Amino acid sequence: MTVESQKKRLLIFAVSSILPWFLRRIFLEKFLGYKLHPSSRIGLSVVIPKMLTMEANAKIGDFTVCKSLDLLVMEEKSSIGRFNLVTGHPKSSSKSFVNEPARESSLVLKPYSAVTHRHLLDCTNKVTLGQYSILAGYASQLLTHSIDLEKCVQASQGIEIGDYCLIGSCSVLLPGSQLPDFSVLGAKALLNKKYSDSYHLYAGVPAKPVKVLSEELAYFTRKEGYIR
């Protein structure tokens, strides 16, 4: 994605903002090629990935910015809240990451998953949030790229968050990290590796499994994403 094409997308998106949603959705589909379900919604936000797919009842709140991504996929009833910054590094934008041909700058939200408010998501490489999982609280950072000190180049790895996970406020997830299904990452934790043991609380800097969680917890068995 060139700077010029992103500016064009921003202009088209800005023009669409004066339209009521049912017309705006059609406008964005026609001129940006997005795939937006009639029941999906975008608030007062800037959302200009190269490709956007929003399934039934997927929603993006106000004052969120999503730019410089190859792909944003929001499956059924997934949501992104207010004041989030979602950014990336498209494959065609520069000579960086040339040794990573399989890299995809993308964010995928599975059904009923949620990003709440005021988070930073660096999607230079793929970030996946599993079904019914919540990036909760405020001010967490998901970082998929860093500097390879040995080679002195930019390097990236994806981040995978499993199903029915809960991530507490102010957590940091580093490139290549993985939180397994049915897990909780405590507030202010630093996740810097792949874990595979479900039904655990991971906490600390760096995060480690500190407590076994019951498989009968209501959070892990709920059928709705929104928690009242």
Automatic annotation (TrEMBL):
It comes from the Bacteria. GO terms for cellular component: carboxysome. Keywords: Acyltransferase, Transferase. SUPFAM superfamilies: Trimeric LpxA-like enzymes. Signal peptide: none annotated. The keyword Transferase applies. GO terms for molecular function: acyltransferase activity; structural constituent of carboxysome shell. InterPro entries: Trimer_LpxA-like_sf. This is Acyltransferase. It comes from Leptothoe spongobia TAU-MAC 1115.
